[in-house]
Amino acid sequence: MADFDLCVMGLGYVGLPTAAIFAHEGLSVLGVDVSEQRLDIIRSGHSDDAEPGLNEFVQESLTAGRLQLAVAPSTADVFIIAVPTPVTPEQGYDNTHVLSAAKAIAPYLVPGGLVVLESTIPPGATEGLADAVKQQRSRLGLDPEIGLKYAHCPERVLPGNVLHELYHNDRVVGGIDDASTVAAEELYSRFCKGDILKTTVRTAELTKVVENSYRDVNIAFANEISMVAAKMGVDETELVRLANQHPRVNILTPGIGVGGHCISVDPWFVISAFPDDTALLRTAREVNESKTQWAVARLSRAIVERRASKVALMGLAYKPNIGDLRNSPALKASEALAMTFPDVEFQVLEPHITGLEGAAHRLGNMPNVHFSSGLDGIGYVDCAIRLVRHQVFDDLSLEKWKVELLEYDGTLSRE
Questions:
Q1: In this structure, are 283 and 302 located in the same domain?
Q2: What pLDDT, on the 0 to 100 scale, is given for residue 398?
Q3: DSSP 3-state assignment of 79?
Q4: pTM to 2 decimal places
Q5: CB within 10 Å: which end of the chain, N or C, has fewer?
Q6: Which is catalytic among the residues 134, 208, 310, 332?
Q7: Catalytic-role residue among 7, 153, 192, 262
Q8: Does 153 qualify as catalytic in the annotation?
Q9: One domain, residues 14 and 100
Q10: For the segment 318-371, what is each residue's pLDDT rounded down to a tens digit?
Q11: For 241-267, how does the pLDDT look when each residue is reduced to its tens digit (9 = 90+)?
């Protein structure tokens, strides 16, 4: 008999709420993370202060004893792997964390058990995981053929609304065989109120990266058009508004680039695997990466033209109304501006974080950068630049300081 019903490997933004939900539904769950510091933070009740309701949800399961935490796995009937899958410096799939998880769980699998890979991956990675587990069990002198089931179930959640979306979003599940698919369907049916969409494992793997690649391409179109509009002296907001009056046109809002852990990463999984067939996806990635550099050049000119000695940078997150800085173009732009103008004092305002740590540590170490999470932290500046359109910035009046408000592209605020 296994020690736990379910073991979740990786307690990040998806793994932790997933573990808590299964525990809430009555399963005995072991949450595993290699970072003891991360486990201490979870136990303290501050696992993710920016995710509404998550801390309380996790603490409820911990207190009830249905969720336990450890740095190493134990035997379980089901293993869910939710570890990071970044890209390599060559923009390929980095399977380091997945292989580490495979080696870690290999001794603790039970006959007929289910292993679900939730991490975003390229096609073929779930089968690669199964091979890695078999090889590790053979190296340990354990039977590699114990009827294990393997499936992929990609996460599809929006930071800031994770619990609701885990419960209510449709889920795609695909196993390496029919039995694996059925087992994964039964697992997620325990809590998922959306539809469980069954398919093959490779289709499931490709679905997530196609979803995010589609979004990347659409954002790239908007960003490219905005650069054309700027050259022609045309207001991008007005241009998009008018074009979208056509009943079959829906141009997205241009921005400073694309960040986060999904849209800026996932297309590379397809591009690197099929370089000769993905010219559009590669171009979209290049456009969205270059948009940040384009914005920095325009903002630099704006700072020089105003002879500004104090500048407020408003927002560091990769998207509005959250505190996630991963791959954030606003953060990259802030670093570039602070390095370009060492004699300019930059007041950085990000209301959704408490300090320039983690992903922002390099910015925080720059001597000409000062941070505030409060709306009153700007003080006197020559101009303010809105890099991220956080809703709280709508209530920020700069009139009392007689400060110009610029948008990410260096133009005066259009509001």
A1: no
A2: 67
A3: strand
A4: 0.91
A5: N
A6: 208
A7: 262
A8: no
A9: yes
A10: 999 988 899 999 999 999 999 999 999 999 999 999 889 888 999 999 999 999
A11: 999 999 999 999 999 999 998 999 999
